[in-house]
Design a protein that fits this description.
With 398 residues, the protein is an alpha+beta fold. It is 33% helix and 22% strand. Strands 1-5-6-12-11-10-7-9-8 form a nine-stranded mixed β-sheet, with helices on both faces.
């Protein structure tokens, strides 16, 4: 990752004129990285702070992990699941390998297990920051992503799982993203079924790939080839994916191993707890979905916004450092930015050279003070101009 420091240019060194056309465009960024420009950068920051305020109202306390950590601490526990997505570099001070976080949840788990080890449980913690990933995906090619989220560490109560889902829904509602739908998943159910079936590695991989692709024909063919009675529920569970009541009924009737039965009971209890607190929330259940859940061990969630905006949040139950039970939800501010309604742009008041705008800032204006006689309200993108001591609205273009 590290390119090192550039060598200082010798005083006599120049670039020939014919080389200037070969110089890279300074606006060109690596694949998966982008500048966020005005006014979207300010909008995203405001949305993040509004969500953090909603978290705080529910008793979640903010932590701020570093962007870099030593590799051996960053990639332990749940962090091991994102090792293949972690950029690494050598620390020139300690001569130890460090990693740039690919996910904030493992860092919060580390803080809970070390710096906050003596604090009473359950801990309610929240965070906001950027993460960096080695690769994007076809649907989400970005490699630098903002995150904002909550974690409940030290509780295995069903109500904790319900709470992180409800708080995330309320945080989105606070910034105008509503209605949302909650998709409940059991990412460890499919591995539990495949483990109990004892399939040959090649057949197991083939069946897992078919489930991952939602290829019902391939799933049915693999189940027939396996000849294991327990796996006959897989096509049924795939077909039942949808509104929670029908999917739960299919899940309850399925022939599941003990680990799978425990997951089914947990799903029913969590969905019931969420429905009690948010009776109007649309809840669906996909029992065999497991894509993208790297370290989750129980009931997991994805939140979708109105329309076709994609995932707004993802989370669920996992094992924290030192074996502590934990659950959480990570919201994606870049997706939230696209889903949130765009409010009115703030009024920008042009202040002529030598005038004072303090009184107008107190009234809520953003003041833009001229730095020279050449500055104009139009060139500084102002909506108002200070004229004879009054803020006068300027004609809108177009």
């Amino acid at each position: 990752m590290g390119a090192g420091l550039a060598e200082p240019r010798r005083p006599c060194q120049t670039l020939p004129l014919f080389m200037t056309e070969d110089l890279p465009n300074p606006a060109l960024l690596p694949a998966g990285f982008a500048d966020l420009l005005p006014p979207d950068a300010a909008r995203e920051a405001a949305l993040v702070e509004a969500m953090m305020a909603a978290f705080a109202q529910h008793g979640y306390e903010r932590v701020k992990p570093p962007l870099l950590e030593f590799e051996d601490s960053l990639l332990t526990g749940s962090g091991a699941a994102v090792a293949d997505q972690t950029f690494r570099l050598m620390d020139p001070v300690s001569q130890r390998m460090m990693g740039l976080r690919a996910d904030t949840t493992p860092q919060v788990a580390r803080i809970a297990a070390t710096r906050l080890a003596a604090e009473p449980r359950p801990l309610r913690l929240c965070y906001a920051g950027q993460v960096l990933r080695v690769r994007g995906t076809q649907l989400a090619p970005e490699r630098q992503l903002p995150q904002a989220g909550i974690e409940v560490i030290g509780s295995d109560a069903i109500e904790a799982d319900a709470e992180v889902a409800i708080v995330a829904v309320e945080a989105l509602a606070a910034i105008g993203v509503a209605p949302v739908s909650l998709d409940v998943m059991l990412p460890s159910l499919t591995p539990a079924l495949l483990d109990a079936a004892g399939l040959a590695p090649a057949l197991r991989a083939s069946l897992a790939r078919a489930l991952d692709r939602k290829d019902s024909a391939a799933v049915e063919a693999a189940v027939r080839e396996a000849g294991v009675a327990m796996l006959r529920c897989l096509p049924v569970l795939m077909a039942a994916s949808g509104p929670a009541p029908a999917a739960l009924a299919a899940l309850q009737q399925a022939d599941l191993p003990p680990a799978g039965r425990a997951l089914a009971q947990a799903a029913a209890a969590v969905i019931a707890a969420i429905a009690r607190r948010a009776p109007g929330l649309s809840i669906t259940l996909d029992p065999v979905e497991f894509r993208g859940f790297r370290y989750h061990t129980g009931v997991a969630f994805t939140l979708y916004g109105p329309g076709l905006g994609g995932e707004l949040a993802r989370g669920g139950r996992y094992i924290s450092h030192n074996g502590e039970p934990a659950t959480g939800m990570t919201l994606y501010p870049d997706a939230v930015l696209r889903a949130a309604p765009r409010g009115a742009e703030p009024a920008r008041l042009f202040i002529p050279l030598g005038a004072d705008g303090a009184a107008f800032r107190a009234q809520g204006f953003l003041t833009v003070v001229a730095l020279s006689a050449m500055d104009t309200p139009e060139s500084l993108r102002c909506t108002h101009s200070l004229q004879e001591g009054r803020a006068v609205a300027l004609p809108r273009k177009g």
